[in-house]
Amino acid sequence: MVAACSPAASGGGGSGTVKVVAGENFWGSIASQLGGSHATVQSVVSDPNADPHEYESSSNDARAFAEADLVLLNGAGYDAWGAKLLGANPSTHRQVVTVADLLGKKEGDNAHFWYGPEYVTRVADKLTAEYKAIDPADSAYFDQRRAAFASAAKPYQDRIAEIKQKFGSTRVGSTESIFEYLATAAGLDLVSPPEFMQAVAEGNDPPAGTVVQFQDQVALKRIKVLVYNLQTVTQVTTNLRHQAQARDIPVVGISETLQPESATFQDWQLAQLISLQNALASAAGA
């Protein structure tokens, strides 16, 4: 759970505390920072050792959804359990923000939207607007929180720009599609087979031909850095990681949810970006 101050009465259109339920703790962290002392935020998926795609909801989740003023879901099939909970727990006052809908995305698209910095900005703006609509008496406060989050996120944004400036067009690999949006933002050339990355993200076996293609990219050192998802480990991805290490290709692990759980969204992302930049610098100096 990510909480912001005490669980006072629901916002309900007046001054108070907005009850928010976020499907995942990366969105919950942002919602908590934007809501400040005028929101309580409960994040459903937060276990750093589990695969969020495989989450099964509980009766406690259902109760939280029923009582929420605002529900924040990722969408695009990533947290389909959340859509089911909404349908099973109707509410006349609850507002729902589905990130995929906000971004014009659909199921089948890469659902790792929190790895796209521009998408994060759009979600933050939308959440602030929702807070102000639910609790208009505190609109000025929510504007202040939005400005504070922009300042807090600046090192994360700046680090992406720095990687793009120093290492733009560097060929990199990724075991999963989680890295696609960030690679694009950082100007990196992600050359891993898209079918491979998508299959792993969906929990499926990648096509045999894409496995061979990826192995060749590693064996021939056609990538400078390998990025892998710490939370969706398979035998195929583990083998690729070992092969990369054997070829002295730097390997960078990234996660789906906050690591550690206590981290803010921006601090978590910044730590991963520093690891990525260090790996790119190491590869460039090799």
Strand tally, please?
8
CATH architecture of the largest domain: 3-Layer(aba) Sandwich
Could you say how many structural domains there are in total? 2
CATH homology-level superfamily of the largest domain = Nitrogenase molybdenum iron protein domain
Tell me briefly what this model is:
This protein is α/β, with parallel strands linked by helices and 286 residues long. The chain has helices spanning 25-35, 59-67, 80-88, 99-103, 117-134, 139-167, 180-185, 194-201, 208-219, 235-246, 265-285, and strands spanning 18-24, 39-45, 70-73, 95-98, 171-174, 189-190, 225-229, 251-254. Helix 5 (117-134) packs antiparallel against helix 6, helix 6 packs parallel to helix 11 and helix 9 (208-219) packs parallel to helix 10.
Explained architecture:
The protein is α/β, with parallel strands linked by helices and 286 residues long. The protein has 2 domains: 137 residues, Nitrogenase molybdenum iron protein domain (Rossmann fold, 3-Layer(aba) Sandwich), CATH 3.40.50; 128 residues, Nitrogenase molybdenum iron protein domain (Rossmann fold, 3-Layer(aba) Sandwich), CATH 3.40.50. The chain has 11 helices and 8 strands. The strands form 2 sheets. The protein has a 4-stranded parallel sheet with strand order 2-1-3-4, with helices on both faces. Strands 6-5-7-8 form a 4-stranded parallel sheet, sandwiched between helices. Strand 7, helix 10 and strand 8 form a beta-alpha-beta unit. Helix 1 crosses helix 6, helix 5 runs antiparallel to helix 6 and helix 9 packs parallel to helix 10. The longest helix has 29 residues.
